[in-house]
Inverse folding.
């Protein structure tokens, strides 16, 4: 029940106002959709396409935001800082066999995969194809998460993890889905050094640099302006 169901079923639709929800409406959204003692998935707080909900949650399980907004300091956090936490994270999303127990090695592989994906997404889309080192990093990390195909009784075909503990292969399936639907360039890391949030760019031109132009974008513009003032820049 509740959030133990597939997260993507509940993810907000395209009409949600990402920027408002992202920083000012989280508490309100939490209150509206409060499921007793169950933490809401990120993909349900923020506006992301249903078919990349697990990927979005996974790459943002490392939250490096450390700016002050509305008097509140964001404290960096890692949702996956132990094998037990990774296991609970996957179980909460129905992405691991019930009897599976994760080891320190499983955690290491998961973090290597997250690191590889974040490193890739940090690159500007135009630079990604040419970066052989990142490609090698992703290939090495992905090798531990094989996938297989399953056909149900009614003929429905689904991709499944190739191992009991390999629920993160679904993350790779979603990454692949972004690629084959020409949307990979829309998934990016916020350009603010104090943020590094991975966001999905819904803008028509797909050229946004910040997860929120009204918050991260403005902060950056103010910083650039102040630096120019310090350096005696007088403008045009
Ligand atoms: Zn940001």
């Amino acid at each position: 029940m509740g959030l133990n169901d597939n997260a993507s079923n509940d993810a907000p639709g395209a009409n949600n106002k990402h920027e408002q929800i992202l920083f000012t409406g989280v508490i309100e959204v939490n209150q509206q959709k409060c499921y007793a003692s169950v933490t809401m998935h990120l993909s349900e707080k923020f506006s992301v396409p249903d078919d990349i909900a697990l990927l979005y949650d996974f790459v943002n399980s490392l939250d490096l935001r450390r700016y002050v907004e509305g008097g509140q300091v964001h404290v960096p956090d890692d949702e996956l800082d132990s094998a037990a936490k990774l296991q609970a994270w996957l179980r909460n999303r129905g992405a691991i066999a019930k009897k599976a127990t994760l080891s320190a090695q499983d955690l290491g592989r998961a973090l290597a995969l997250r690191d590889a994906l974040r490193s890739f997404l940090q690159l500007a889309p135009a630079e990604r194809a040419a970066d052989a080192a990142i490609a090698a990093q992703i290939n090495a990390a992905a090798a531990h998460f094989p996938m297989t195909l399953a056909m149900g009784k009614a003929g429905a075909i689904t991709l499944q993890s190739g191992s009991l503990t390999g629920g993160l292969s679904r993350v790779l399936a979603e990454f692949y889905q972004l690629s084959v639907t020409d949307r990979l360039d829309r998934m990016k890391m916020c350009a603010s050094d104090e943020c590094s949030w991975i966001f999905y760019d819904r803008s028509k031109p797909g050229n946004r640099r910040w997860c929120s132009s009204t918050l991260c974008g403005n902060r950056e513009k103010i910083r650039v302006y102040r630096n120019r003032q310090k350096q005696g820049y007088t403008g045009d």
The radius of gyration is 19 Å.
